[in-house]
């Protein structure tokens, strides 16, 4: 198992044991900025090195998946979970959108196994972040006044994750492999160390959710554990269908199976204030994120190899 | 320099609505406000400043009685149902009272 995820376990342990371990907010912000920029830059450099043919139809297929996933999730939450419309829509938005941290752990997992992945995956990460949030808001707002679409769109498109990912992609793409070389020690060589520290704080945050997990009932826990695998399977099948490699298929499965805990909560809090924020956050952060990094990602890799006809 | 009595309106709420709330406060006629990061615990759970989705802010507004009342009315109508928020008023003495409407 990749050592970085043990830092997550350490953070959870420290949080549960009420250690005085605490990461200064500014450092956590810096770490998340480094991760976002590193993922963006890496993707941009790879795109500059080997421009992918047929990237446009692939991108459209990925966006279509982003719009579709919440439509599967909403009825599950509404009918099986018996949630109010706002809460069901919020869950659908969180699980349709993606988690950058899970994606980063997926990259580290593949690097550990020496499996390369297609250069366009960071771009797909960007493309998948927004559509589900828009669908979620529409599901919650059906039959109601449109309200604050301008503010919502500003929030999702100008949120720091999109700005840094897209900015990194563009800078990496313009600079190219040689231009980016002086930046490699900070962004690429330190990637795993930064990810380890980031996951330590994620563990502390997840530990602070345990009370909410216990209070939120069985459905949320079952939802958080059972929903990612079928979603990832959809992602893997799409990855295979649009011609991604095993690594790329794995990462698209990781994206589909992951749940947002930064972009979606912020946007939904503004656009659908009546939704209970701790419900979706507890599921995505307290249940699905740990599930994905410990159990999900190896499963998705296995699914990808099986789909590609490997022995797995 | 004129001294005088004014109200200090303090709002402690979710950081996510800072932009909107501050725009509301200015629109209601306050001449200014101060925002700081906060953390604590209450009926909506523990909110720690370390992480954007759960961080809180404290907004302080020095103003006259009429504006204080309209701020209190406006935010309780607009935000109390759905957001973690408390608001309280205190009587204060300020120097240069003419600065604060």
Describe this structure in words.
The complex is a heterodimer of chains A (312) and B (101). In chain A, helix 3 (55-80) packs antiparallel against helix 4 (85-96) and helix 6 packs antiparallel against helix 9. Chain A has helices at residues 4-16, 25-49, 55-80, 85-96, 100-112, 121-129, 131-141, 149-157, 160-179, 184-189, 191-207, 210-216, 218-226, 228-241, 246-257, 263-271, 277-307. The two termini of chain A are 17 Å apart. Chain A has a single domain (4-11, 24-307), classed as Na+/H+ antiporter like fold, CATH 1.20.1530.20. Chain A has 312 residues and is an all-alpha fold. Chain B has one domain: Alpha-Beta Plaits. By secondary structure, chain B is α+β, with helices and mostly antiparallel strands. A four-stranded antiparallel beta sheet of chain B has the order 2-5-1-6. Chain B has a two-stranded antiparallel ribbon with strand order 3-4. In chain B, a hairpin with a 2-residue loop joins strand 3 (40-42) and strand 4. Chain B starts with a strand and ends in a 6-residue tail after the last strand. The longest helix of chain B is centred in the last third of the chain and has 14 residues, at 65-78. Chain B is globular, with a radius of gyration of 14 Å. The chains are: A mainly alpha (312), B alpha+beta (101).
């Amino acid at each position: 198992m990749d050592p970085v995820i043990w830092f997550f376990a350490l953070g959870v342990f420290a949080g549960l044991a009420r250690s005085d371990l605490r990461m200064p907010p500014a450092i956590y912000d810096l770490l998340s900025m480094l991760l976002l920029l590193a993922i963006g830059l890496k993707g941009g450099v790879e795109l500059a090195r080997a421009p992918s043919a047929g990237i446009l139809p692939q991108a459209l297929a990925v966006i279509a998946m982003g719009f579709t996933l919440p439509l599967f999730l909403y009825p599950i939450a509404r009918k099986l979970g018996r949630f109010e419309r706002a809460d069901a829509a919020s869950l659908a938005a969180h699980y349709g959108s993606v988690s950058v941290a899970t994606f980063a752990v997926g990259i580290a997992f593949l690097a550990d196994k020496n499996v390369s992945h297609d250069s366009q995956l960071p771009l797909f990460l960007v493309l998948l972040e927004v559509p589900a949030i828009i669908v979620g808001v529409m599901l919650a707002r059906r039959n109601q006044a449109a309200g604050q679409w301008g503010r919502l769109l500003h929030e999702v498109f100008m949120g720091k994750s999109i700005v840094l990912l897209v900015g990194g992609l563009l800078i990496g793409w313009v600079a190219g492999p040689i231009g980016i070389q002086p930046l490699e020690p900070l962004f690429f060589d330190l990637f795993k160390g930064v990810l380890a520290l980031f996951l330590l704080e994620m563990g502390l945050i997840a530990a602070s959710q345990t009370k909410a997990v216990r209070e939120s009932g069985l459905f949320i826990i079952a939802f958080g554990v059972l929903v990612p695998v079928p979603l990832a399977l959809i992602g893997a099948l799409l990855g295979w269908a649009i011609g991604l490699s095993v690594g790329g298929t794995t990462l698209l499965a990781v994206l589909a199976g992951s749940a947002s805990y930064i972009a979606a909560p912020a946007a939904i809090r503004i656009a659908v204030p009546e939704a209970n924020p701790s419900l979706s956050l507890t599921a995505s952060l307290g249940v699905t994120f740990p599930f994905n990094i410990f159990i999900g990602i190896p499963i998705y890799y296995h699914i990808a190899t099986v789909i590609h006809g490997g022995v797995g | 320099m004129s001294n005088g009595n004014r109200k200090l309106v303090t709002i402690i709420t979710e950081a996510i609505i800072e932009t909107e709330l501050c725009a509301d406060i200015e629109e209601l006629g306050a001449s200014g406000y101060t925002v700081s990061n906060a953390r604590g615990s209450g009926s909506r759970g523990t909110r720690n400043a370390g992480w954007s989705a759960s961080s809180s802010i404290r907004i302080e507004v020095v103003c006259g009685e009429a504006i204080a009342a309209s701020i209190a009315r406006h935010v309780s109508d607009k935000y109390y149902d759905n957001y973690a928020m408390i608001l309280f008023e205190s009587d204060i003495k300020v120097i240069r009272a003419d600065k604060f409407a």
